[in-house]
Design brief:
8 strands; alpha/beta; Rossmann fold; four-stranded mixed beta sheet
């Protein structure tokens, strides 16, 4: 994983930012979604490094980056503070120059505001919120947009209608993978928000919904995976839920609809067929970049 990448921690005044870097050429900064780490890019970053100077960073408070003390006004973890970190970590020797405000060819951001829209199922509000950032990227020269966290895709239809840039939609890419495999019935593992939104009903095949108690088990285990608190027993529990969805409900494969689920479950160790939704999405992004 990340073979040949250099690792370092960069002091950005208020904290330290962990990065992995490899490649040469135009700069490409890859930032994770909420609530993930830079590891979500492990499947595609090595390929991109053949054509770009790739930098994968953990945002403050995540992964191996520093975790400043919390304050009542939330300022240490505001998106403006995280943006400053990325600008400061780039202003180091031996990195290509980038235009102010651009930070490379693609900027993928994580914003605290997304969660409130998701929790309130405000898809129109979320779409408008994301479209504002996409408009900024378009003004900086971006040619396409991608949301690398899965849950915000609940507003894909609303966002596509108002986005100033073409959107690489994760559900469409997963649907293409399913068609390639000839599947007709799949099960779903993901956060409670992702599963209950029924966003994957657009796949064009039967999508099995876990039972209520299974949704909670999957959600809670995934949150612990992201925070590094998961146990072997919890991961075994995820495998058992997946096997139940196959045996009880006739699923032909299980969709890993969480960007970090492939770190703990895959066909090699799970014992059942899987489709890594994040991997399908990232491959599509990489293909557009390299075409």
């Amino acid at each position: 994983m990340f073979d040949g990448f250099e690792t370092s921690k960069v002091n950005v005044a208020e904290t330290e930012i962990f990065i992995r870097r490899k490649g040469s050429g135009r700069p490409l900064l890859l930032l994770h979604g909420f609530p993930e780490t830079h590891l979500m890019w492990h499947a595609v970053a090595p390929t991109l490094a053949d054509a770009f100077t790739v930098v994968c960073a953990d945002l403050r408070g995540y992964g191996a980056s520093g975790k400043p003390p919390w304050s009542p006004d939330h300022a240490p973890y505001a998106k403006t503070a995280m943006s400053r970190d990325m600008v400061r970590q780039w202003k180091r020797p031996n990195l290509p120059d980038v235009r102010s405000g651009s930070l490379g060819d693609i900027a993928v951001r994580r914003y605290d505001g997304v969660r409130s829209f998701v929790e309130n199922n405000d898809r129109t509000g979320l779409a408008r919120y994301l479209a504002g950032f996409i408009s900024s990227l378009a003004a900086g020269g971006a040619e396409m947009a991608a949301i690398v966290a899965i849950t915000p895709h609940i507003c894909a239809a609303e966002l596509t209608a108002i986005s100033p840039l073409p959107l690489i939609d994760i559900v469409s890419e997963v649907a293409a993978a399913i068609r390639t495999l000839g599947l007709k019935r799949v099960a779903l593992l993901g956060t409670r928000f992702t599963v209950e939104s029924r966003m994957f009903d657009r796949l064009g095949v039967d999508v099995i919904m876990p039972k209520v108690e299974e949704i909670e088990q999957i959600h809670n285990t995934y949150m612990d995976v992201l925070s590094g608190r998961s146990t072997t027993a919890q991961i075994d529990g995820l495998r058992q839920v997946a096997r139940t969805l196959i045996a009880r409900d006739g699923a032909e494969a299980v969709l890993l609809a969480g960007t970090d689920l492939s770190m703990v479950l895959n066909e090699d160790d799970a014992g059942f067929p899987t489709i890594d939704c994040a991997a399908a999405h990232i491959k599509a992004i990489a293909k557009r970049l390299l075409d």
